[in-house]
């Protein structure tokens, strides 16, 4: 599902194609070409059950006080029926439909109509028109990087409304949370279906399309690599970054406002969740240019996995901690709160510094200092699809000398901090760290499979130099 992505390998230069002296299978770039029975079964199960999982979590909070076991136990014992649960579920409303349509339209407007100006006055921020990575067809797409600007404008309007304008209640998102879920599903399925049809009938680039012959796999994982409308509206960048991630902090603010309305105060746990998740969101937009080099943009095609995932899965399951705290306000002890804050900041530090070390190494071709020393690297070579021989370097200094994906480890520490802020009374807020552990471990293995095919024996030298994946000395 939608995720926090990192650049795919710790390397100085990255192009296509791959193993030493021989071309990689086509499936090494982007998603698979051939679909085995296990992949097909996984796809069908996700298509069937992912929407149900989202509904189950939101319904559990709305009707069962955030207990994950209570709905199943009540159904098993006969105390309730599925029809009863569904009858108590708020349906789609015109208010929610208008609100959601206005929200998405506003984000589209900010995305395509307002060129970035933040890079002109914010030191070290990189925005404006930027180039992405080379696609499998050899295309280098250009992007208008203005996510930070969109986030700032959106939140300035939010706070102006709360303190000056009074156009809508700060609790409006929470008050329409389930009706908005149906709107998000409609958009998620609509954009995924449109991307599928577009890939078959009028793709942006026919050479960047992949067809497996299996409808379900094509629908979920996508056909077209970079579906676009016009010159600037890129489906992948828009739906990965906007509207879901811009909304993340607004959703948390609405949850905090609801807690204030219900209990007369905002707990320190709610403040911690808002603060730590806002740090990640702002970091995402500050480094949006860097995001163009991540797995999501460089390797994934655009299908239901990204389209529906970014519309529904991300805003509804990544915000479970704030939602839980509306129903179960938790006031942490000063020591507990300080420990959660330190863990969250530590996770962010490892995540950001690890990625900075890799980016610095890549930009300077190793002519830099990491932890005060000249970095060490494994010299590698590979052959691209056009038969050209290339040389590259794999970093083995700094955090990248401790583990091959220590940036993922930092991400997981931050995810754990969000959950620990909610105390230990219920499992529901801990779904996020469990999901991120599975997601990032799978991403780690997937990335290493691609790198092994790309670098061949040189990758074996690299893994011998850095034997740990995520946890030094353990895994």
From TrEMBL:
One of its GO terms (molecular function) is 7-dehydrocholesterol reductase activity. Keywords: Cholesterol biosynthesis, Cholesterol metabolism, Endoplasmic reticulum, Lipid biosynthesis, Lipid metabolism, Membrane, NADP, Oxidoreductase, Steroid biosynthesis, Steroid metabolism, Sterol biosynthesis, Sterol metabolism, Transmembrane, Transmembrane helix. Residues 1-25 are annotated as: Disordered. InterPro entries: ERG24_DHCR-like (IPR001171), Sterol_reductase_CS (IPR018083). Its EC number is 1.3.1.21. GO terms for cellular component: endoplasmic reticulum membrane. This is 7-dehydrocholesterol reductase. It comes from Erinaceus europaeus. The gene is DHCR7.
């Amino acid at each position: 599902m939608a995720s926090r992505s990192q650049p795919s390998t710790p390397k100085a230069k990255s192009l296509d194609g791959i193993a030493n002296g021989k071309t990689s299978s086509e499936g090494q770039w982007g998603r698979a070409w051939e679909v085995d029975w296990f992949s097909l079964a996984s796809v069908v199960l996700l298509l069937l059950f992912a929407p149900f999982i989202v509904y189950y979590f939101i319904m559990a909070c709305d009707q069962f006080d955030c207990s994950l076991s209570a709905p199943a136990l009540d159904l098993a014992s006969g105390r309730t029926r599925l029809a009863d649960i569904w009858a108590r579920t708020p349906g789609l409303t015109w208010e929610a439909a208008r609100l959601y349509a206005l929200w998405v339209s506003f984000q589209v407007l900010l995305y395509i109509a307002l060129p970035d100006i933040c890079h002109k006055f914010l030191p070290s921020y990189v925005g404006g028109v930027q180039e992405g990575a080379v696609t499998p067809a050899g295309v280098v797409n250009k992007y208008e990087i203005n996510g930070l600007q969109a986030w700032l404008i959106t939140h300035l309007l939010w706070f102006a409304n709360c303190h000056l304008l009074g156009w809508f209640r700060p609790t409006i998102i929470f008050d329409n949370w389930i009706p908005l879920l149906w709107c998000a599903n409609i958009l998620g399925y609509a954009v995924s279906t449109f991307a599928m049809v577009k890939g078959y009938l009028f793709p942006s680039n026919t050479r960047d399309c992949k067809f497996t012959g299996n409808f379900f796999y094509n629908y979920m994982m996508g056909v077209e690599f970079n579906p676009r409308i016009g010159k600037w509206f890129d489906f992948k960048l828009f739906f990965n970054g906007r509207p879901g991630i811009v909304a993340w902090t607004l959703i948390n603010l609405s949850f905090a406002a609801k807690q204030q309305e219900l209990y007369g105060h905002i707990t320190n746990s709610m403040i911690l969740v808002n603060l730590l998740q806002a740090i990640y969101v702002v970091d995402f937009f500050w480094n949006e240019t860097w995001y163009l080099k991540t797995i999501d943009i460089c390797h994934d095609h655009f299908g239901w996995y990204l389209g529906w995932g970014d519309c529904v899965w991300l805003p509804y399951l990544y915000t479970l901690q704030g939602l839980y705290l509306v129903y179960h306000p938790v006031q942490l002890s000063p020591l507990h709160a300080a420990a959660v804050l330190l863990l969250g900041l530590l996770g962010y530090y490892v995540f950001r510094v690890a990625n900075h070390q890799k980016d610095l190494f890549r930009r300077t071709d190793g002519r830099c200092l990491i932890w005060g020393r000249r970095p060490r690297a494994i010299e590698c070579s590979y052959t691209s699809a056009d038969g050209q021989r290339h040389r590259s370097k794999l970093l083995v200094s700094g955090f990248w000398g401790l583990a091959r994906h220590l940036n993922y480890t930092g991400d997981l520490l931050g995810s754990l901090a969000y959950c620990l802020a909610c105390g230990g009374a219920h499992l529901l807020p801990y779904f996020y760290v469990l999901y991120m552990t599975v997601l990032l471990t799978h991403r780690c293995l997937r990335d290493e499979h691609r790198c092994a095919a790309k670098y061949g024996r040189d990758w074996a030298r690299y893994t011998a130099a850095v034997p740990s994946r995520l946890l030094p000395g353990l895994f």
